[in-house]
Specification:
two-stranded antiparallel ribbon; 8-stranded parallel beta barrel; NADP_OxRdtase_dom; AKR_Detox_Biosynth; 14% strand; globular; 353 residues; 13 helices; alpha/beta; 10 strands; oxidoreductase; oxidoreductase activity; NAD(P)_OxRdtase_dom_sf; TIM Barrel
Amino acid sequence: MKTLPLGQSDLHVTPICLGTMTFGEQVDEASAHAMLDRAAERGINFIDTAEMYAVPARAETFGATEAILGNWFASRPGLRAKTVLATKVAGPSRGMPWVRAGQGMTPADIVASCEASLRRLQTDVIDLYQIHWPERHVPVFGIKYYDPAKETSQTPIHEQLDALAGLVRAGKVRHIGLSNESPYGVHEFVRLAEQHGLPRVVSVQNPYCLINRSYENALDETCHRLDVGLLAYSPLGFGLLTGKYDASGTEGPNAPAGARMASYASVRKQRWGRPEALTAARRYNQLARDHGLSPTQMALAFCYTKWQVASTIIGVTSMAQLDEDIAAFGTTLSPELLTAIDTLRWETGDPAI
């Protein structure tokens, strides 16, 4: 699989990135290692994780995913050097005091989190270290509108950037990125970096899929002009765009066994659990079938082929899912189908924003 440069960095990543948030919760360590082996065999060189994983987040599984990855690297000599490894420092608590106490994210928090991730990952350096969500109050995780009255930020962006710069200078981090960010946030991180000679963010990891194309509402222009790559997460809309929920609904006893939406109570209250999101997903899924594609093929091909996307993050719970997601690479969507997709977006909006 070909690789492409990520932003203005020297990182060359495959257009598919293996997301790992299910490892340590829905996927046990042996199965996770088998999936990592398969991804490497298929040419994927890019792995994304986070200190707060596994998901759904619990104190008992905090850091479990990074530990599973660390054991995989330790047992496969030589693979670490061939892998672009990305992880994330969590933002303010969001009800997870075992991750971070309080409403701030101080330079000391960032450094301590990085040190702990390095230990769990059993590596000397993290290739891409990302801020998982902003300390600022921004419209993310189902919040639709910015409300300045809810601002509780305690750490200026410049201080966060200084802390990340220290990790780069120490050789513990190669490049930095953002996640769940807004156009303002991306621009401000780049502006301050250029003004003060600090490391420049090379990527932003945001949701991007058929039922949430909010990235195209200004953030795509920001990232294009600033040369910041998009790492698209949830390309299958938390499973809604696979078709598995089309007949049964998203929760309760009728949901497919083991499906994320059936298990993650907190997610059902957010963007992916909205009835409007399922209604729109069903229409996209039928559109795929009408054009001779599976829902998964169309949803992934949409992300794989968009100029806005540097790499698409796929999250899996089985080898079959992994193989299906990789096999979708190379699928092309006809101009007629792309027009129909845009028409459907006009009618349904972005219900999972």
